[in-house]
Amino acid sequence: QVQLVESGGGLVQAGNSLKLSCAASGRTFSSYAMGWFRQAPGKEREFVAAISRSGVNTYYADSVKGRFTISRDNAKNTLYLQMNSLISEDTAVYYCAAVNAVSGGSYYLLSHNYNYWGQGTQVTVSS
């Protein structure tokens, strides 16, 4: 089992950057592929980015491609999401999630495939 705690959210002006972190407990962090999802008020939770267990493969939603970068440090049991050129549409609660699976690609895009979730961190982008 793994416990996830997000941090780094806050209020930022449009065009600026923010970096989210997700600290994982336990010794098996590297056994999990990881993902970031977000949920805006009145909307369904949506996929943002995912990264394979080794960190070699990454996946992004079209809406954030070129602006966001997902990365991980398995030695520190930490997942990151660097968010640049933020826009008001990025305002949401951001969640990190872990999936214990070797499948890649479209499997990581689906929230119901993930086994563990953090509590979320609020990101608000002012225009």
Brief descriptors of the model:
mainly beta; 11 strands; four-stranded antiparallel beta sheet; 127 residues; seven-stranded mixed beta sheet
Please describe the topology of this protein.
Layout: E1 4-7, E2 10-13, E3 18-24, E4 33-39, E5 46-51, E6 58-60, E7 68-73, E8 78-83, E9 92-99, E10 116-117, E11 121-126
Parallel strand pairs: 2-11
Antiparallel strand pairs: 1-3, 3-8, 4-5, 4-9, 5-6, 7-8, 9-10, 9-11
Q: What features would you describe in this structure?
A:
- The protein is mainly β and 127 residues long.
- Helices cover 0% and strands 46% of the residues.
- The chain is built from no helices and eleven strands.
- Strands 2, 4, 5, 6, 9, 10 and 11 form a seven-stranded mixed sheet that branches.
- A hairpin with a 6-residue loop joins strand 5 (46-51) and strand 6.
- The protein is globular, with a radius of gyration of 13 Å.
- It starts with a strand and ends with a strand.
- The relative contact order is 0.30.
- The mean pLDDT is 95.
Order of helices and strands: EEEEEEEEEEE
Secondary structure tally: strands: 11
**In which range does the helix fraction lie?**
under 10%
Low-confidence stretches: none
The average pLDDT value, as a whole number, equals: 95
Span of the ends, CA to CA: 40 Å
Beta-strand level of the residues, as a percent range?
over 45%
> Tell me about the biggest sheet?
7 strands, mixed
The radius of gyration computed from the alpha-carbon positions, rounded to a whole number of angstroms, is 13 Å
Note the total helix count.
0
Envelope shape: globular
